[in-house]
Amino acid sequence: MKKNKEGRVKTAVTEIIKNRQLDERGFSLLEILIAIVLLGTSFLFLASMIYQNNQAIKLNKRKEEAIFVREDIKEWLLYKSQLQDIANLNSFVFIEFKASLDEGQIARRNHLILDNSGIQRDMLTGKGKYGEIEVPLSDDERGTFIQKLKYHLTDADFLPESLRTDGNQLYIGQYVDRFNEETDFLVRVVVNHKVGVSEYNPRTDGVSLNILIYDKQNGSLLTETYVNWVVES
User: Fold this and answer.
1) 63-70, long-range: CB within 8 Å, 24+ apart, which pairs?
2) Helix (H) or strand (E) segment spanning residue 205
3) CA separation for the pair 226, 12 (Å, rounded)
4) Tens of pLDDT along 153-165?
5) 176-200: string of b/e by CB count within 10 Å (b at 16+)?
6) Is the pTM of this model over 0.85?
7) Contact 149, 200 (CB under 8 A)
């Protein structure tokens, strides 16, 4: 009996040693390859998540900056010392609509320009093609004119590819910061005249302005807002 017990013990010990030897051999080549593939896939997924998260953060920051630009333009347009200057720069906006207006005239009537650099000039006289009155950069009563946009009417490569049309070239300007440095934000101000108003006067009844802010890098629309713009109360 004692010898049988000793034999069973030896057999059990031998099995344990064999199992340990198998364990020490490690994973098979196939198992290692599968582990590498899974690990690589996990790293790619994690890297993709990190990249997308960073892109989302950048986009949100970009939109926040664009909202600041939008509100700055909006407040500036409502600033009384600038009203008459901008109105004189856009006298064509306030004319009565006629069926005889050509495509260029309609486009001009439906846009505000906010700086002298946006004036389309007559090639012979050098004066504003649509009756624009150039803004004096300094005035004894209203002080210094605050510049917000710069236009590049003759620069064919000014706009990103997605925005590169003749109309946009004329009516999209580049936002400048308080140091008068150009930024990567583009601004277009579209004019919508009111309908259904008897004896409508755009100066006193107001026009609806759509202020659109674009990304200069890719031309995407970042934000927009509407404001009722009344020049004369």
Assistant:
1) 63/222, 63/223, 65/185, 66/185, 66/213, 66/215, 66/222, 66/223, 67/213, 67/223, 69/175, 69/183, 69/185, 69/187, 69/213, 70/211, 70/213, 70/223, 70/224, 70/225
2) helix 202-205
3) 86
4) 999 899 999 999 9
5) beeeeeeeebbbbbbbebeeeeeee
6) no
7) no
